Predict the structure.
Amino acid sequence: MKTSRLFILIAMAATATALHAANVVNNVDPRTNSWFTTYSGQYARIYTSDVNKTNGDSVTTWSTGSTSQVLPVYCGVQEIYSSSNWVYIRSSGLANHVMGPWYLDANHTQAFPNYPTNEHVLYKIPRNPTVPSTKTRNGGGAIGYFVDGVAVFNSWDAYYYTNGADTQGGTTGGYWNRDAYINEGASFDPNNAHQAGGQHHYHANPPALRYFLGDHVDFNTVTKAYPEDTNAPTKHSPILGWVSDGWPVYGPYGYSVSNDASSGIRRMISGYVLRNGQYGSQNLTAVGRADLPQWAVRLYGVASNVMSGPAVSTSYPLGRYMEDNDYLGDLGVSMGTNTYDLDEYNGRWCVTPEFPNGTYAYFVAISSNGTPVFPYNIGRGYYGDPAGSAVTSITESVVTNFLGGPESIPLLNSPSMKSGTVTLTWSATEGGTYLVESTTNFTSWTTNSASVSAVPTGAAYTNNPTDNFRFYRVAQTALASYDPVGTGGGTVSGGTYPVPGGSVSRGNGTNITLSITLSAGGSNPPSLPPANAPITSVTLGTLTATGSSDATAGTVLANFSIPSNVTTNTQNVVVTFGIPPGQSQAPTFTTTGGFTINP
């Protein structure tokens, strides 16, 4: 009986990923290691309809006419950097779970006009948060990021009441500000998310993220929904995100006693109630919206009667505005385990698994069945100083904490063996093609497969059972075109670039697509070839395209791999078509200096 022995060596090609490996550090700070990057090498996906959701049919490119994602994009956080004072994340802003579908109405008859798009965001968060005595009101747009790289939005939907009607606009709104969950909830997908333009974001409890983090949420494989687990919670919620003031956002479950990790687990109760007469609050249905609640008076710095809101009615129901809620502390109700747990900013000082010595932390507010309750993620004001923000670049020395997606390093899983057959499996980047080679002497290598594809973030190769005493190595040899998040800490492969006018930095194996606009007046003949005319070759300087197409007349798409030793500066792009019937010369179109390769 023949015995098969297999020694495995994973040898990566010299890519930008390998060059960065020495810079990646293992940091124990939750601000750098709590980010959910497991699926950073996976394309973002959406469901475009309920039918597609039911059937499990998702797509990696999409368009509504107003927002489009024409190339696949890797989901979530792609890069993490840190200094002594800041943590920087680079993210596409798109979740790892399948997003969508989105509708404008509860019956799902009107499609939501926006789909998510690559946000290309670089966001910094303070590493040493401070607590100012004067609090800042949060406004529209991202006020932080969840650990899956999706934007944190507050509870405002960008409309406020003024001059007898609800009006959209402003940075932080007015005095009677509409509640996003109440007014826009019909447009949320099953994960309480939708888009502002193409910016995907959560206003409230993100159940899919919590499911992937193991936070007391189930997944229904039929409905594709994420219901709250009906059993009693047994562990503290994980960190779900970070706000721009540097304090964490946890899921809804914390320790029963804020400073005692042995006190048991309970759902954190919001300190807000509707102003319907309960707990001594004003009954706005009876007295009208004449006065702001005291939390708003403090935060806005105005008198309570600065401006009246509309009378409670069918058109303006109670709960429509954030200011329809009172904070129990202002009604003389003390915080405690039998009343409520969270302050007016929707957080508390407490110990957590990540901060055993204590931290201030926001908690997601939900009811017992998982329904979001006001103020959802954080209150209308920041507890800390919101010094974090989106930035265009990193202007200080930083440590590289994580590089994912196209820059990630494949990792070998334990091989499996059965009846003399050995199967190699490794982590991979979606869109990647991998080469498997073997040797018995480390002098000569045999190609076993040159075309192993990632599916979607893993790859596998099964050996020939007659092989014996072999070492194997695996290298990524190609990566399909994709929409890059940013240049970050190294060369970014992928993307579609225009000709004329485009440019890219060279790199070992950088794969790009050129979208070449042909100009009438080629050397022979002068007119443009029709769509799908046969293409003989496309060259970029000394490089030849690995593939090309011209489904649209006048536009040629050509794929190139840009090596590290290629000549830099402006390059001529030449497209040569097949010789048309009855003619003797091939139509050739040259764009002089049409594309630039940077060092």
About this structure: Residues 1-27, 487-493 have pLDDT under 50 and may be disordered.
